[in-house]
Design goal:
Blueprint: E1 13-18, E2 22-28, E3 36-41, H1 49-59, H2 61-66, E4 69-75, H3 79-86, E5 102-104, H4 109-113, E6 120-123, E7 129-132, E8 139-144, E9 150-156, H5 164-180, H6 199-208
Parallel strand pairs: 3-4, 4-5
Antiparallel strand pairs: 1-2, 1-5, 3-8, 6-7, 8-9
Length: 209
């Protein structure tokens, strides 16, 4: 598994559905330079855990926006599949009401470049392309800063849904560090004290906690 933290997030150019209805070509990550981005991958449209995650991000979308954060989802389905799922109501297992972009990683290059593509592939002795397991994305999440650098990543196996509040907490921690210059200790939450990255600073913090 590649660790992308501290590196430039791989850019991409792909089709996407935006505003819950419009299919656009040439959707790129780089167009959001100057904003923070939460880029998250999910395995498949029309499944079970995935809609719970997509709706959970939508429910907190205003909180992300208030922090200058763009939320972008990616799966290996086509843009037509995304669009069809967006027309299906929540009561019927759909994702109607999702307004943030959903990118179509149809050729699987985005998932590969972020090293979240499940399954194995290669060539056999007859030079034929073969694959073992479904080539779908794990539940990867990447927090990208305003300069396009990955500052946090999390990858869950397919059955394990993510905690959207934790994504918000990590954004708050990053922005706190950028603003105050103080680091965030274990279980830090917005409004908590930070600490200075010195022996005295750590000792002072531990004495209070």
């Amino acid at each position: 598994m590649a660790v992308l933290v501290g590196k430039q997030a791989p850019d991409f150019n792909a089709a996407a559905v935006i505003n819950g209805e419009e299919i656009v070509e040439n959707f790129s990550l780089s167009q959001f330079r100057g904003k923070y981005v939460v880029l998250f991958f999910y395995p498949k449209d029309f499944t079970f855990v995935c809609p719970t995650e997509l709706h959970a991000f939508q429910a907190k979308l205003d909180e992300f926006k208030s922090r200058n954060v763009e939320v972008i989802a990616v799966s290996t389905d086509t843009e037509q599949s995304h669009w069809g799922w967006l027309q299906l109501s929540k009561d019927n297992g759909g994702i109607q009401g999702i307004t943030y972009p959903i990118v179509a990683d149809t050729n699987k290059t985005i998932s590969h470049n972020y090293d979240v593509l499940a399954g194995q592939w290669g060539y056999n002795e007859n030079d034929e392309l073969v694959a073992e397991g479904e080539l779908v994305a794990y539940r990867g999440l990447f927090l990208i800063d305003t300069e396009g650098v990955v500052r946090h990543q999390l990858v869950n196996d397919l059955p394990l849904g993510r905690n959207v509040d934790e994504a918000l907490r990590m954004i708050d921690a990053l922005q706190f560090f950028e603003e105050k210059g103080e680091v965030c200790p274990a279980n830090w939450n917005k409004g908590s004290e930070g600490l200075t990255a010195t022996h005295d600073g750590i000792a002072d913090y531990l004495s209070k906690n």
